[in-house]
Amino acid sequence: MAINKLYSAADRAINQALRIRPGEKFLLVTDTQKLEIAEALAYHAKRAGAETTTYLMTETLRPIEAPTRQFKELIRTAAVTVYMLEGRFAEKPFRGFMVSEGAKHGRICMMPGITRDMMERLVAIDFSRMAAFTRKVMRAMKDADDVVIENPAGTRIAFSVKGRRFDADIGDISKKGVHGNLPAGECFTAPVEESFTGRLVISLIDDKLGHGVMEFKRGRLVAFLGKGIAEVVKTVGADPTARIVGEFGIGTNKGARICANMLEAEKAFGTVHFAIGDSYGLGKNKSRYHFDALIDKVTIRAKGRYVAKDGKFLL
Fold first, then answer.
1. Does the pLDDT of residue 298 top 60, yes or no?
2. Is residue 105 within 8 Å of 177, Cβ to Cβ?
3. Residue 240: which residues within 8 A CB-CB, separation 6 or more?
4. DSSP string covering 62-129, please?
């Protein structure tokens, strides 16, 4: 067959990021909008010798309230799982189940809302330079007990990451227990919850563009403004675990753009993101939910020095 940019990107995903090996069970979870991407991934997984199962989620079954018994069996026997469904607020618990079970029994790549353009522009790349820079950012932030994030829109949040492990999402999803994204390009941890106090002025929350404000006190969301944030709060209801900070991430992919898709936007240079809800084992909080909020044009201070200023890294 003729090789195009999409198939080249799928080759990178299968053979460089996931490093699928002969005989591995590969579960590919897709919807109708992503079928051409699923076909490219399945093509290269077959060439790599994987036993591939494609699970098509039709619109008539959505929103997905809970996994079926058959789906539970599939993910628990898969060595590699890829998730590509469009993001839906109501499906956050299902996504949380996939992250937990996929990493527990194998390795999982989350690609919610992936597009052909994102595959061709951000996955068909050499990950090595991005990985080296991401590790440099991690070294600058590691064990800082005096992190301050600000931006011109009015963000000012202070917190500690002392004693918290940083993880790097750099396109290496080759080992059991790993949970990563494609496109890749971030480092992340969980703030020390009790230290997290201040204001976030956000440009995006979980794929919804629009200005919003989130006020935190000792790690807990105590006030907010903005339609997107209001929708998140309505979705989680009275669940207290969904109002606690669960993640702090820094984007390190030069090619990523701020757009109405958090999968790409949170990887963009000059941005950080914070999540309320589950901390993915990096902090204390466990939750069925995980909602990311993007802050752009950031100034980052840690250990008494500037890591970034007005959206430009100083490393």
1. yes
2. no
3. none
4. -S--S--HHHHHHHHH-SEEEE-PPP-GGGHHHHHHHHHHHHHHSEEEE-TT--HHHIIIIISS--HH
Tell me, rounded to whole angstroms, the distance of Cα 224 from its chain centroid.
23
Tokens 């200005």 map to which residue? 211
Fold (CATH) for 5-122: Thermophilic metalloprotease-like (3.40.1830)
Please state, in angstroms and rounded to a whole number, the distance separating the CA atoms of residues 101 and 118: 26
Question: For residue 208, what are the β-bridge partners?
Answer: 205
pLDDT tens-place string over residues 129-178: 999 999 999 999 999 999 999 999 999 999 999 999 999 999 999 999 99
- What lies within 8 Å, CB to CB, of 229 at 6+ separation is 202, 205, 212, 213, 214, 293
CA distance 259 to 245: 23
Dihedral class, residue 177 (left if φ above 0, else alpha if ψ from -120 to 50, else beta): left
Q: What is the C-alpha to C-alpha distance for residues 51 and 57, in angstroms, rounded to an integer?
A: 20
Name the segment(s) of the chain with CATH classification 3.40.1830.10: 5-122
* HEC readout, 146-199: CEEEECCCCCEEEECCCCCCCEEECCCCCCCCCEEECCCCEEEECCCHHHCEEE
3-class DSSP string for 209-264: EEEEEEEEECCEEEEEECHHHHHHHHHHCCCHHHHEEEEEEEECECCCCCCCCHHH
Q: Could you give the strand order of the β-sheet that contains 107-110, starting from the edge strand earlier in sequence? A: 51-56, 25-30, 80-83, 107-110, 179-181
Tell me the backbone φ, ψ of residue 217, rounded to 5 degrees.
-135, 120
pTM of the model as a whole: 0.87
